[in-house]
Amino acid sequence: MYRPFQMNGNPYKANVFLVSVSANPVLEMETSYTKLVADGLVDEEVLQELFASELGNASREYKGSVQFAKWLYKISGEQVVITSLNAFEVADVKDLKAVKKEQPAQFARGEQIFEEVLAEFTPKIIILQGKQAVEQFG
After folding, report:
1. Closest to 37 in 3D by CA, of 64, 4, 72
2. Distances (CA, A) of 17 to 57, 67, 97, 107
3. DSSP structural state of residue 4
4. Interior/surface letters 52-76, b for 16+ CB within 10 angstroms, e for the rest
5. 29, 64, 81, 95 from 70: Cα distances, Å
6. Could you report the per-residue pLDDT of 78-116, keeping only the tens digit for each?
7. What is the reported pTM?
8. What is the pLDDT of residues 12-52, one digit of tens each?
9. Residues 6+ apart with CB under 8 A from 110
């Protein structure tokens, strides 16, 4: 599954993008829940309700991203879009190498989705999270 972004609000009103290397955690869902998942991408409560288990076991990086977004909103009122250089969901950033090798079309689509999100919402500020994100952005 691909996760283009996540936030709590309207992405068109967000000026800040927080960009990591990969989309994690993997959110397991049935195809009948596609509309709910789409709603969850812009509503943190819905996302938490649907994927409490996955989010509870998420990486420190992901949890830190969510906390950063909440903190920035609290102190400035600025909404943050959490996104990834590759929207293809993986359990760990190390898994992206295998995806690139074994599923090159899905890997390429994940990168393309990030470019589409960036072009669609045109953030004023992009924060790259981690060394790998800095090295791969561009």
Report:
1. 4
2. 23, 14, 24, 21
3. -
4. eebbeebeeebeebbebbeebbeee
5. 25, 10, 11, 28
6. 999 999 999 988 877 788 888 999 999 999 999 999 999
7. 0.78
8. 999 999 998 876 655 565 555 566 556 666 777 766 666 66
9. 2, 23, 84, 86, 87, 88, 99
